[in-house]
Amino acid sequence: MIDRRYFIVASLAALLPAGASAAGRPVQPEPQTFDYGPAKLDIYAPAGAKNLPVVFFVHGGAWRFGKRSQVGSKPGFLLANGFVFVSIDYRMLPEADVATQAGDVEKAYAFLRANIARHGGDPDRIVGMGHSAGCHLVALTGMRGGLPGVAALILDDTRAYDLAALSRNGGMVRAYARVFSDPKQWAALSPATFVEGKKHPPTFIAYSRAPGRGEESKAFAERLRATGTKVTLFDGSAYTHMSINGDFGQDGDALTAAALAFLKATVT
Length: 268
Known about the structure:
34% of the residues lie in helices and 18% in strands.
C-alpha cells in the first residue's frame, strides 16, 4: 500500500524551483554582520535588493549552544526565491536565562525593523522563524507582542509551547528541567500563555518524530486556530529533530516546499 503522504510530498516538492537542485543551487552568499546590542546578527541580501520580504531566523541548541552561522542552505535558497535572510546570535545559558534570551530576540527584531530597508528588506514583511530553542523563543516573543508588526511566524519543532502541560504529561525531561527549573516562571515563559484574547499573525507549525513534538504542536495549533489565527500544521514525522532543520533548502525537501508555499501566500 502506498502511503498517502508520498503524493503530498511529491506535490510539494514540485513547488521547488530549479535553482534548488544540487547542480543549480546558488553559491552560499556572504553576510554582512552587525552588532544589535547584546549580540550580533548576519544579514544576507541579494545584490540590488529592494523592498524584499525578510526571514528572521533564531537558531536552536537547547538554549545553551549554537551560533548564527549554523544556517545550512537557508540563505542561498531563500535569496534565490526573493527574500532577505537574517540570522541572529543571542546570549546563552548560563550567562543569560531564557527571559533574557527572549529579550535579545526582541532587540534584534527592533534593530531589523529600524535598519533592514537600507539592506533591501521590507520592515513590514518580516517573518520570524526558529528551530528548537529558537522556535520556542520566536513563539514566545511573537505571541506576547514582542515582535510588533511581524508578518508571519514559522515554528519548527519544539515541545516548549506550554510548560505546565509539558510537566503534567511527563515531558519535563532533563534537557527541559535544567532550563525551566522554576515552576513559578513557567507561565511567563510559555507561548501558550499569550495566545488567547487576540488574533496572531499567520503561523506555520512543523513537528518532527522526536518524542512529544506532534502532540504539543497540534495542541498549540488548535489554541491558535481558536483565536481566528491562520495556522498551517506540517506533519514532519518523516524527519528527526535535527533533519527537520538541517534539510531546509535542499533539493526535493517537503518541509522547504511547504514553508515556501506558506511564505509566498503570506508575504509575497
